[in-house]
Amino acid sequence: MRRPWQAALFGALLAAAIVTGVAYVAIGVLIWRHGEAVLAHAPQRPADAALVLGSRAFLDGKPHPCLTGRVDTAIALAQAGLVKQFVFSGGVDAEDGRTEAFVMQQHAQAAGFAGPMVLESASTSTRLNLSLSRPLLLAAGVRSVVIVSEPYHLWRIERLVRMSGFDQSFDVQYAGAATSCWRALGPLSKGALREPAAIVNNAFRGLLF
């Protein structure tokens, strides 16, 4: 039979696991619903540039569809006359050693986009995507921007934008990229499953609120 302290410890651990699981699911539902709302309300105002945030660059020897789908969304914005240039933000991917910004540029060129493209190739986080892209955007004369990423990512991006003062430098809109990863896996995609943990991490560091 368990000793009283063992039973108490087990109960505390079980309760903590339940609370953590409930919180994780709640955050997942929140960002999922927010992503769907952004998808339902595409940008309406023309902007100077689309800022496309990176993710894993390659999968099975080919450009990752989660990444190229973000670029495709930016191209659709350009075709609709809403943006004229792209800024691709993403550094070296630790999982495959490729530079996300370069992969995005190559995909845009292969898709026929011939407009100006600026590459930010040093960032390794969403926070750095914003902070390292800011001077490049300003140098390019950009004053309004559409930030493009997958829908699950946008709830955190919006708060990082506000907390960092990024929206004091630019008029910011958001575009959800309904990539093949989003359509096929939704909340079960790798990025979406990792996002609640990223939100908690950023919140504890005082980056979101």
From TrEMBL:
A Pfam short name: DUF218
Gene Ontology CC, one term: plasma membrane
Designated name of the protein: Membrane protein
Gene3D superfamilies named in the record: HUPs (3.40.50.620)
PANTHER family: DUF218 DOMAIN-CONTAINING PROTEIN, INNER MEMBRANE PROTEIN, PROBABLE PERMEASE
Organism domain of life: Bacteria
Domain DUF218: 48-172
InterPro entries: Cell_Envelope_Assoc, DUF218, Rossmann-like_a/b/a_fold
